[in-house]
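lol ok so funny story. i was supposed to be doing the assay writeup but got distracted and ended up predicting the structure for this chain instead. priorities right. anyway since i did it might as well share w the group, maybe its usefull for someone
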Amino acid sequence: MHKTEPKVLKIYRTILQKYMNRFGLESVDIAFLARSTKSNINSVLDSKTSIGLETMEAISNIFNLPYYEFGNPNHPMPTLKSLPEKTRQRIIFRKKEGPHIELTYNSLSINDKIILVLSKYQMNQLFLTEEIMHEIKIAFPDDPINTTLIGDRLKKSFQAYVQKTDEQAPSRVGRGRKPYFYKVIASLPHTTISAAREAINTEWSKNY
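and the output, tada:
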């Protein structure tokens, strides 16, 4: 391991915490905006783990900055108006909702949540499991759902509606296996979608 890495990571954590405090964001908000998980962001903030370049860049982009500027402690902090629209909306959301409260969700409802997300997809549309996860995490940031679990549910419960393809997602920063696209091959029954909406019964579910 490079000798300067611990110092670089320490500076990055300090800057991230400073930005979070300035704009009233929590780790769950950073995870949502960076398409990561709250546990990963907390581990970084608690110095329990390192952080990959892809995640560092994603976090920097939350504040409309490239990594080399965000990681520079002397770089001026951006103004609220200069932030991406998605970040500004999340800041408004957190201010309105107040501090995040940990909740536990029944894993049995995961299929219903997947059903609602799939209901918005068109015939032959390609998608990734991480896209479904991201949609669910919008409303249920504490849900223990992950891409592996979603892939397993698609295989076991949704074979009649989706199909895994041989097409992989474009190359991404860093190492790791590139995910495969899934394709919608049949529409979900309206009765199935209605039942899932009633089972979830939240403002989020009413949008489907």
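Residues 5-97 form a domain with the 434 Repressor (Amino-terminal Domain) fold (CATH 1.10.260.40). The CA atoms of residues 27 and 38 lie 6 Å apart.
back to the writeup now i swear
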